[in-house]
Amino acid sequence: MDRGRASATAMGTALMRAAHTRLDRPVLVEDPWGDRLVLAEEREAMRARAGGEDLDAALRAHPSYGTVILRARYAEDALARVIRRGVRQYVIIGAGMDSFALRRPASAHDVEIFEVDHPSTQELKADRLAACEIPLPPGLHLVAADLSETGLDDALASSPFRRDRPAFFSWLGVTTYLTREANLATLAAIASCARAGGELVFSYLDQSLLDRDGAPSSMERARAHVASLGEPWVSGFDPHQLHRDLRGAGLELLEDLGPEELAARYCSGRSDGLGPSPGSHVAHAQVST
Fold it and tell me: What is the pTM of this model?
Protein backbone atom coordinates (compact mmCIF):
# COMPACT_ATOMS: atom_id res chain seq x y z
CA MET A 1 0.00 0.00 0.00
CA ASP A 2 1.34 3.43 -0.91
CA ARG A 3 2.27 5.78 1.91
CA GLY A 4 -0.64 8.11 2.61
CA ARG A 5 -3.10 6.05 0.57
CA ALA A 6 -5.91 4.21 2.30
CA SER A 7 -7.50 1.10 0.87
CA ALA A 8 -10.03 1.93 -1.83
CA THR A 9 -12.42 -0.58 -0.29
CA ALA A 10 -12.04 1.10 3.13
CA MET A 11 -13.03 4.41 1.55
CA GLY A 12 -15.93 2.79 -0.27
CA THR A 13 -17.35 1.05 2.79
CA ALA A 14 -17.19 4.29 4.81
CA LEU A 15 -19.17 6.05 2.09
CA MET A 16 -21.65 3.17 1.95
CA ARG A 17 -22.37 3.53 5.67
CA ALA A 18 -22.81 7.29 5.22
CA ALA A 19 -25.17 6.81 2.26
CA HIS A 20 -27.19 4.30 4.30
CA THR A 21 -27.48 6.81 7.14
CA ARG A 22 -28.79 9.52 4.82
CA LEU A 23 -30.99 7.52 2.48
CA ASP A 24 -32.22 4.19 3.86
CA ARG A 25 -35.10 3.73 6.28
CA PRO A 26 -35.14 2.32 8.82
CA VAL A 27 -31.47 3.02 9.56
CA LEU A 28 -29.52 0.05 10.89
CA VAL A 29 -26.21 1.87 11.51
CA GLU A 30 -26.03 5.61 12.17
CA ASP A 31 -22.65 6.44 10.65
CA PRO A 32 -22.35 9.69 8.67
CA TRP A 33 -18.58 9.98 9.07
CA GLY A 34 -17.57 8.74 5.62
CA ASP A 35 -18.95 11.96 4.15
CA ARG A 36 -16.38 13.91 6.19
CA LEU A 37 -13.39 11.58 6.14
CA VAL A 38 -13.37 10.86 2.38
CA LEU A 39 -12.29 13.85 0.30
CA ALA A 40 -14.30 15.30 -2.57
CA GLU A 41 -11.62 14.34 -5.11
CA GLU A 42 -11.66 10.76 -3.84
CA ARG A 43 -15.42 10.63 -4.19
CA GLU A 44 -15.12 12.04 -7.69
CA ALA A 45 -12.58 9.34 -8.63
CA MET A 46 -15.01 6.68 -7.37
CA ARG A 47 -17.83 8.26 -9.35
CA ALA A 48 -15.68 8.20 -12.50
CA ARG A 49 -14.89 4.51 -11.98
CA ALA A 50 -18.63 3.90 -11.65
CA GLY A 51 -19.17 5.35 -15.13
CA GLY A 52 -20.00 8.89 -14.07
CA GLU A 53 -23.33 8.11 -12.42
CA ASP A 54 -24.47 9.53 -9.10
CA LEU A 55 -22.10 8.14 -6.46
CA ASP A 56 -24.81 7.39 -3.90
CA ALA A 57 -26.73 5.42 -6.53
CA ALA A 58 -23.59 3.53 -7.53
CA LEU A 59 -22.75 2.68 -3.92
CA ARG A 60 -26.28 1.47 -3.14
CA ALA A 61 -26.32 -0.64 -6.33
CA HIS A 62 -23.03 -2.32 -5.46
CA PRO A 63 -23.52 -6.03 -4.65
CA SER A 64 -21.67 -5.64 -1.33
CA TYR A 65 -23.68 -2.63 -0.13
CA GLY A 66 -26.19 -4.50 1.99
CA THR A 67 -23.54 -6.79 3.42
CA VAL A 68 -21.43 -3.81 4.53
CA ILE A 69 -24.39 -2.42 6.49
CA LEU A 70 -25.58 -5.72 7.95
CA ARG A 71 -22.18 -6.93 9.13
CA ALA A 72 -21.59 -3.57 10.88
CA ARG A 73 -24.97 -3.80 12.64
CA TYR A 74 -24.36 -7.42 13.66
CA ALA A 75 -20.92 -6.62 15.09
CA GLU A 76 -22.19 -3.61 17.03
CA ASP A 77 -25.12 -5.62 18.41
CA ALA A 78 -22.65 -8.21 19.71
CA LEU A 79 -20.38 -5.46 21.06
CA ALA A 80 -23.28 -3.87 22.94
CA ARG A 81 -24.02 -7.19 24.65
CA VAL A 82 -20.44 -7.70 25.89
CA ILE A 83 -20.22 -4.08 27.06
CA ARG A 84 -23.30 -4.72 29.23
CA ARG A 85 -21.36 -7.65 30.71
CA GLY A 86 -18.43 -5.40 31.59
CA VAL A 87 -16.01 -5.81 28.66
CA ARG A 88 -14.02 -2.60 28.21
CA GLN A 89 -11.59 -3.42 25.38
CA TYR A 90 -12.60 -3.37 21.70
CA VAL A 91 -10.08 -4.35 19.01
CA ILE A 92 -10.96 -3.52 15.38
CA ILE A 93 -8.72 -5.43 12.96
CA GLY A 94 -8.48 -3.81 9.55
CA ALA A 95 -10.27 -0.75 10.94
CA GLY A 96 -9.94 1.44 7.85
CA MET A 97 -12.22 4.46 8.27
CA ASP A 98 -14.25 2.90 11.09
CA SER A 99 -15.95 5.60 13.15
CA PHE A 100 -17.24 3.82 16.24
CA ALA A 101 -14.91 5.85 18.47
CA LEU A 102 -16.47 9.05 17.09
CA ARG A 103 -20.09 8.02 17.58
CA ARG A 104 -19.92 5.63 20.53
CA PRO A 105 -23.04 5.43 22.71
CA ALA A 106 -22.93 6.59 26.32
CA SER A 107 -22.76 2.96 27.47
CA ALA A 108 -19.35 2.65 25.76
CA HIS A 109 -17.85 5.93 26.99
CA ASP A 110 -15.11 4.15 28.95
CA VAL A 111 -14.29 1.43 26.41
CA GLU A 112 -10.69 1.39 25.18
CA ILE A 113 -10.73 1.07 21.37
CA PHE A 114 -7.76 -0.34 19.48
CA GLU A 115 -7.90 0.22 15.72
CA VAL A 116 -5.34 -1.99 13.99
CA ASP A 117 -4.48 -1.24 10.37
CA HIS A 118 -1.69 -0.57 7.91
CA PRO A 119 0.55 2.40 8.87
CA SER A 120 -0.49 4.31 5.74
CA THR A 121 -4.16 4.00 6.62
CA GLN A 122 -3.55 5.04 10.21
CA GLU A 123 -1.50 8.07 9.15
CA LEU A 124 -4.18 9.11 6.68
CA LYS A 125 -6.98 8.69 9.20
CA ALA A 126 -5.15 10.80 11.79
CA ASP A 127 -4.57 13.47 9.15
CA ARG A 128 -8.25 13.48 8.14
CA LEU A 129 -9.41 13.82 11.73
CA ALA A 130 -7.00 16.70 12.22
CA ALA A 131 -8.23 18.36 9.02
CA CYS A 132 -11.77 18.14 10.39
CA GLU A 133 -10.47 19.69 13.64
CA ILE A 134 -11.46 16.56 15.54
CA PRO A 135 -9.03 15.52 18.28
CA LEU A 136 -8.45 11.82 18.74
CA PRO A 137 -11.23 10.69 21.08
CA PRO A 138 -10.17 9.60 24.58
CA GLY A 139 -9.54 5.89 24.69
CA LEU A 140 -8.86 5.54 20.95
CA HIS A 141 -5.54 3.91 20.06
CA LEU A 142 -4.45 3.84 16.40
CA VAL A 143 -2.24 0.75 16.22
CA ALA A 144 -0.14 0.96 13.05
CA ALA A 145 0.87 -2.48 11.83
CA ASP A 146 1.25 -4.32 8.56
CA LEU A 147 -0.14 -7.67 9.66
CA SER A 148 1.54 -9.38 6.71
CA GLU A 149 4.83 -8.59 8.46
CA THR A 150 3.93 -8.12 12.14
CA GLY A 151 1.89 -10.48 14.29
CA LEU A 152 -1.28 -9.17 15.91
CA ASP A 153 0.11 -10.02 19.34
CA ASP A 154 3.24 -7.93 18.70
CA ALA A 155 1.13 -5.08 17.30
CA LEU A 156 -1.10 -4.98 20.37
CA ALA A 157 1.92 -5.32 22.68
CA SER A 158 3.00 -1.87 21.46
CA SER A 159 -0.29 -0.40 22.73
CA PRO A 160 -2.00 -0.21 26.15
CA PHE A 161 -4.00 -3.37 25.34
CA ARG A 162 -4.28 -5.64 28.40
CA ARG A 163 -4.19 -9.36 27.65
CA ASP A 164 -5.33 -10.11 31.19
CA ARG A 165 -8.63 -8.29 30.67
CA PRO A 166 -11.65 -9.35 28.57
CA ALA A 167 -11.77 -8.06 24.99
CA PHE A 168 -14.07 -8.04 21.99
CA PHE A 169 -12.62 -8.24 18.48
CA SER A 170 -14.18 -7.35 15.13
CA TRP A 171 -12.66 -8.27 11.77
CA LEU A 172 -14.98 -7.12 9.01
CA GLY A 173 -14.47 -7.02 5.27
CA VAL A 174 -10.93 -8.39 5.42
CA THR A 175 -10.79 -12.20 5.19
CA THR A 176 -11.74 -12.33 1.51
CA TYR A 177 -8.57 -10.42 0.61
CA LEU A 178 -6.22 -12.78 2.47
CA THR A 179 -4.99 -16.30 1.81
CA ARG A 180 -6.50 -19.14 3.80
CA GLU A 181 -3.19 -19.54 5.63
CA ALA A 182 -3.15 -15.86 6.62
CA ASN A 183 -6.76 -16.03 7.81
CA LEU A 184 -6.13 -19.07 9.99
CA ALA A 185 -2.98 -17.45 11.40
CA THR A 186 -4.93 -14.31 12.30
CA LEU A 187 -7.67 -16.33 13.98
CA ALA A 188 -5.03 -18.12 16.05
CA ALA A 189 -3.40 -14.78 16.90
CA ILE A 190 -6.73 -13.40 18.12
CA ALA A 191 -7.21 -16.45 20.32
CA SER A 192 -3.70 -16.07 21.75
CA CYS A 193 -4.19 -12.35 22.50
CA ALA A 194 -7.57 -12.66 24.16
CA ARG A 195 -8.43 -14.00 27.57
CA ALA A 196 -10.59 -17.12 27.60
CA GLY A 197 -14.17 -16.14 26.88
CA GLY A 198 -13.19 -13.19 24.69
CA GLU A 199 -15.33 -12.82 21.59
CA LEU A 200 -14.83 -12.17 17.88
CA VAL A 201 -17.18 -11.19 15.05
CA PHE A 202 -15.84 -11.57 11.51
CA SER A 203 -17.21 -11.64 8.00
CA TYR A 204 -16.34 -14.03 5.21
CA LEU A 205 -17.41 -15.21 1.78
CA ASP A 206 -18.56 -18.76 1.10
CA GLN A 207 -15.58 -20.43 -0.59
CA SER A 208 -17.86 -22.19 -3.06
CA LEU A 209 -18.56 -18.86 -4.79
CA LEU A 210 -14.85 -18.49 -5.47
CA ASP A 211 -14.32 -22.10 -6.55
CA ARG A 212 -17.15 -22.74 -8.93
CA ASP A 213 -18.18 -21.34 -12.28
CA GLY A 214 -21.59 -19.73 -12.53
CA ALA A 215 -21.47 -17.41 -9.51
CA PRO A 216 -24.15 -14.69 -9.68
CA SER A 217 -23.23 -12.12 -12.32
CA SER A 218 -23.42 -9.30 -9.77
CA MET A 219 -20.78 -11.01 -7.66
CA GLU A 220 -18.57 -11.63 -10.68
CA ARG A 221 -18.74 -7.93 -11.50
CA ALA A 222 -17.88 -7.01 -7.92
CA ARG A 223 -14.97 -9.44 -7.95
CA ALA A 224 -13.62 -7.95 -11.18
CA HIS A 225 -14.04 -4.42 -9.81
CA VAL A 226 -12.00 -4.95 -6.63
CA ALA A 227 -9.36 -6.83 -8.61
CA SER A 228 -9.03 -3.79 -10.88
CA LEU A 229 -8.29 -1.72 -7.76
CA GLY A 230 -5.45 -4.08 -6.83
CA GLU A 231 -7.44 -5.71 -4.00
CA PRO A 232 -8.55 -9.08 -5.41
CA TRP A 233 -10.68 -11.62 -3.58
CA VAL A 234 -8.38 -14.45 -2.55
CA SER A 235 -10.17 -16.89 -0.26
CA GLY A 236 -13.26 -17.71 1.75
CA PHE A 237 -14.40 -20.33 4.23
CA ASP A 238 -16.59 -23.40 3.87
CA PRO A 239 -19.55 -22.78 6.21
CA HIS A 240 -19.85 -26.53 6.85
CA GLN A 241 -16.22 -26.71 8.02
CA LEU A 242 -16.02 -23.38 9.81
CA HIS A 243 -16.44 -24.82 13.29
CA ARG A 244 -13.45 -27.10 12.68
CA ASP A 245 -11.32 -24.25 11.33
CA LEU A 246 -12.14 -22.15 14.37
CA ARG A 247 -11.54 -24.96 16.84
CA GLY A 248 -8.11 -25.53 15.32
CA ALA A 249 -7.33 -21.84 15.98
CA GLY A 250 -8.50 -21.97 19.60
CA LEU A 251 -12.01 -20.58 19.05
CA GLU A 252 -15.53 -21.95 19.39
CA LEU A 253 -18.25 -21.00 16.91
CA LEU A 254 -21.26 -19.37 18.58
CA GLU A 255 -23.23 -18.35 15.49
CA ASP A 256 -22.82 -18.18 11.71
CA LEU A 257 -25.38 -16.22 9.72
CA GLY A 258 -25.56 -16.62 5.96
CA PRO A 259 -27.54 -14.41 3.57
CA GLU A 260 -30.93 -15.89 4.43
CA GLU A 261 -30.41 -15.58 8.19
CA LEU A 262 -29.03 -12.04 7.92
CA ALA A 263 -32.00 -10.99 5.80
CA ALA A 264 -34.47 -12.58 8.23
CA ARG A 265 -32.90 -10.84 11.22
CA TYR A 266 -32.40 -7.37 9.81
CA CYS A 267 -34.32 -6.89 6.56
CA SER A 268 -37.81 -8.21 7.21
CA GLY A 269 -40.44 -5.72 6.15
CA ARG A 270 -38.02 -3.34 4.45
CA SER A 271 -39.17 -1.68 1.24
CA ASP A 272 -35.80 -0.26 0.14
CA GLY A 273 -34.32 -3.54 -1.10
CA LEU A 274 -31.48 -3.59 1.44
CA GLY A 275 -30.16 -7.12 1.80
CA PRO A 276 -27.00 -9.23 1.95
CA SER A 277 -25.08 -10.34 -1.12
CA PRO A 278 -24.96 -14.03 -2.15
CA GLY A 279 -22.50 -16.08 -0.15
CA SER A 280 -21.86 -13.43 2.49
CA HIS A 281 -21.58 -14.62 6.07
CA VAL A 282 -21.00 -13.07 9.48
CA ALA A 283 -19.69 -15.35 12.24
CA HIS A 284 -19.50 -14.95 16.00
CA ALA A 285 -16.90 -16.94 17.94
CA GLN A 286 -15.52 -17.20 21.45
CA VAL A 287 -12.01 -17.91 22.66
CA SER A 288 -11.93 -21.46 23.99
CA THR A 289 -11.77 -21.90 27.74
Answer: 0.94
